[in-house]
């Protein structure tokens, strides 16, 4: 059984789970002085049951897919576990998202978890110690990820939270306004593997606020949209961006600003969500929540012009992701 840990401020309440060092729930104090749950919260956190969405969980040692499950570290080839057909996804079947992390400390506004991954687990080199430190301050939730290794290795960590700022989780998330600070994005093949970097134009232009549903309506025949049942694409963040992405719900008046020191955000519009992910009110439906995963460029081993960074023994690795919320007046009441 997974334990739950609550951290809170006057504006924000967050429930964390030891299963996958996960965000199990986020509640925002609204302008009407009520609490609204805005993070997708499956029922299985307490039972450690499988959940294909990985909602809220820390995903490591890899974000996304790796073609043929093959990586190269300092000239040495490693075969990773193939847990999606012939490919590797989200760190493998024994990745951090599926593990019970240890809670190292817990206070009213902060909680820290750690996890040790043994050398060779799912094919990755190195004994790696991962840490996830969550903190709430005012209307902001922040997670700091860190890692150390005893062998040269490759690592990329993100949080797989999904959001519906209406709090309904009924498919309405597609109508919320999204903005992403990216001039370029990555196209995928039919297996959702990255193949090329292209300008973020047409259906991928989120440089100004627009709803995913509107973009899909404008480009109904786009092959990338058909492959992903919407969006499942990496956006390469502009240098010096003050924020990575913003999401706004006109209905609730809630805005979320995502900030990070990562180089990319994968926007997944939830087209493959289904009843396998159970909520308190029933099963998920496609598009009921949006994921914005701050990470590095996916599968740099097989994407032309990209180089995979190597984490060396004794070298620190630390990255941050934060979500800041504001609860204004809903558009229909202004």
Write a concise synopsis of the structure shown.
By secondary structure, the chain is mainly beta. Helix content is 4%, strand content 40%. The chain has one domain: Beta-galactosidase, Chain A, domain 5.
CATH architecture: Distorted Sandwich
Shape: globular
N-to-C SSE series? EEEEEEEEEEEEEEEEEEHHEEEEEEEE
Which regions contain 5 or more consecutive residues with pLDDT less than 50? none
Helix percentage: under 10%
Structural class label: mainly beta
**Can you tell me the number of structural domains?**
1
Structural commentary:
Helices cover 4% and strands 40% of the residues. By secondary structure, the chain is mainly β. It has a single domain, classed as Beta-galactosidase, Chain A, domain 5, CATH 2.70.98.10. An 8-stranded antiparallel sheet has the order 10-11-12-13-26-21-20-16, with no helix packed on it. The chain has a 6-stranded antiparallel sheet with strand order 15-25-22-19-17-18. A 4-stranded antiparallel sheet has the order 1-2-3-4, with no helix packed on it. Strand 2 (12-17) and strand 3 (22-29) form a beta hairpin.
């Amino acid at each position: 059984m997974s334990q739950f840990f609550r951290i809170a401020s006057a504006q924000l309440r967050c429930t964390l789970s030891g299963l996958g060092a996960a965000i199990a729930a986020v509640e925002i104090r609204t302008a009407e002085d009520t609490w609204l749950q805005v993070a997708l919260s499956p029922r299985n956190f307490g039972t450690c049951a499988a959940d294909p969405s990985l909602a809220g969980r820390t995903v490591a040692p890899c974000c996304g897919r790796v073609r043929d499950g093959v990586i190269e570290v300092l000239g040495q080839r490693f075969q990773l576990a193939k847990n999606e057909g012939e490919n590797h996804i989200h760190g493998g079947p024994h990745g951090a998202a599926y593990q019970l992390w240890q809670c190292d400390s817990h206070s009213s506004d902060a909680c820290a978890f750690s996890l040790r991954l043994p050398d060779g687990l799912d094919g990755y080199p190195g004994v790696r110690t991962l840490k996830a430190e969550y903190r709430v301050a005012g209307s902001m939730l922040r997670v700091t990820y860190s890692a150390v290794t005893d062998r040269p290795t490759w690592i990329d960590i993100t949080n797989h939270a999904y959001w519906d700022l209406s709090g309904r989780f009924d498919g309405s998330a597609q109508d919320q306004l999204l903005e992403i600070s990216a001039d370029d994005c990555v196209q995928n093949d039919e297996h959702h593997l990255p193949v090329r970097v292209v300008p973020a134009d047409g259906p991928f232009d989120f440089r100004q606020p627009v709803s995913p549903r509107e973009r899909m309506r404008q480009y109904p025949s786009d092959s990338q949209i058909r492959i992903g049942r919407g969006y499942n694409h990496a956006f390469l963040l502009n240098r010096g961006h003050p924020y990575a992405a913003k999401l706004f719900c006109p209905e609730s008046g809630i805005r979320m600003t995502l900030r990070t020191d990562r180089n990319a955000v994968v926007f997944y519009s939830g087209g493959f969500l289904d009843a396998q992910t159970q909520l308190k009110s029933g099963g998920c439906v496609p598009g009921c929540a949006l994921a914005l995963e701050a990470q590095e460029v996916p599968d740099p081993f097989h994407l032309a012009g990209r180089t995979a960074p190597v984490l060396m023994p004794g070298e620190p690795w630390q990255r941050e992701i934060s979500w800041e919320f504001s609860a204004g007046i809903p558009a229909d009441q202004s």
